[in-house]
Amino acid sequence: MNFVVAQQLQKLREMLRETAPSREQMATRLRAVEKDVILPVKAAFILILLIYLYYLPQLEEFRLPRSPALEVVERLFLVYVAANVAVGIILFRAQRFPMLFVQRVIFSSSFLDGLFLASSPLSWRAGSRARFTGSSSV
Questions:
Q1: Are 94 and 31 in contact (CB under 8 A)?
Q2: 71, 64, 53, 68: which is closest to 134 by C-alpha?
Q3: What is the pLDDT of residues 81-99, one digit of tens each?
Q4: d(Cα 96, Cα 99) in Å, to the nearest integer?
């Protein structure tokens, strides 16, 4: 009886064992997801921000004061766009670079995305409040 239970537990353990994909499969998956999913989403996000930061303010009849936080985000936005263009170039030519370098570039890009997105809601809220109330205070 105990032998049968031990065999069944061993089979269960083998079925639940985590199998890591090979390095080649992992590299292919990482490149495909980043290039085919993440980059188009970032491009749409950047396009929306370009319209919000540079095109919409020109449509206003009179210029309302902008919050200092929104001005900082506006200045750093071009650095963010340049970094994402560089990441896109690296991802499209990823076969020429070592996988470790590509992984570190993707990690750095994701970290930069997190920093930029973390700073954006505060400035958007402050900027929209300044636009609608006519004041620049938060």
A1: yes
A2: 64
A3: 999 999 999 988 888 888 8
A4: 9
